Amino acid sequence: MTLLIKTNNICKKYNSNINQFQLKPTSISFEKGKIYIIKGRSGSGKSTLLNIIGGIDRPTSGTVFFNNESFYDLSDNKQSEIRNKNFGFVFQSFNLIPELTAKDNISLPKHFNKNININDNKINRIAEELGIKHLLNSKPFQLSGGEQQRIAIARALITTPEIIFADEPTGNLDNLNSQNVAKLLIDLVSNRNVTLILVTHEENLIKHQHTKFFMHDGELKLEEGEDDA
Ligand SMILES: Nc1ncnc2c1ncn2[C@@H]1O[C@H](COP(=O)(O)OP(=O)(O)OP(=O)(O)O)[C@@H](O)[C@H]1O
């Protein structure tokens, strides 16, 4: 088992006029090639946790280790490099650039880091796996939600990341598309030995070998029947 990400008592406090929220101290480990599912009610703190682990949002206190280095103590350049090269993100709202074709959206990581190798071969291969090869010249507005999310998944995988963070990736899709896209994502990461942290409510996709967490009022708990994380 190779440890990829580990958090040590990460905590986040939001104090605004509108609301107060606290992610309670969380210590958790993520291993290479494993799939982690996070469930929980709206507002319980799932995205807050995912953003901290994914290097997008610094915790109020505590440490996130990526490959044994304290991520938020690295330089801004190094943090961006890791986010761009080693992490992949899939969001509920797809986050595609409307002016770009599907192909250019998939190539986007190269725009941020010239050292990332993305070529036509690689794009065609992944597009084929995702069943979107015929859509590469289309723009997002010409595509259905399920097709757009497949493009976003291709963009997340094209850099051959070590870990994918997926925050309710099927939240904007109808039932059938939702099942298909979530299954595709799980199959693709499993075939590549990529770690997946998936926020989802798709109960029927969750398998016994996945590690399941439940977030309640900012507190993350391992679901019963699991070993300690
Ligand atoms: N930048 C912010 N400033 C202030 N409060 C915030 C901020 N981001 C999130 N919150 C608050 O933190 C709490 C947790 O939000 P979070 O988005 O993590 O929940 P969630 O479980 O992902 O919800 P959902 O399932 O609806 O996406 C909420 O009460 C939210 O309003």
UniProtKB/TrEMBL annotation:
Coiled coil: none
SMART domains: AAA (SM00382)
InterPro entries in the cross-refs: AAA+_ATPase, ABC_transporter-like_ATP-bd, ABC_transporter-like_CS, MacB-like_ATP-bd, P-loop_NTPase
Residues annotated as domain ABC transporter: 5-229
Alphabetized GO MF terms: ATP binding; ATP hydrolysis activity
Entry keyword set: ATP-binding, Nucleotide-binding, Transport
Pfam families the UniProt entry points to: ABC_tran (PF00005)
Domain of life: Bacteria
Gene3D superfamilies: P-loop containing nucleotide triphosphate hydrolases
PANTHER family the record matches: ABC TRANSPORTER DOMAIN-CONTAINING PROTEIN, LIPOPROTEIN-RELEASING SYSTEM ATP-BINDING PROTEIN LOLD
Family, as annotated: Belongs to the ABC transporter superfamily.
Name of the protein this chain belongs to: ABC transporter ATP-binding protein
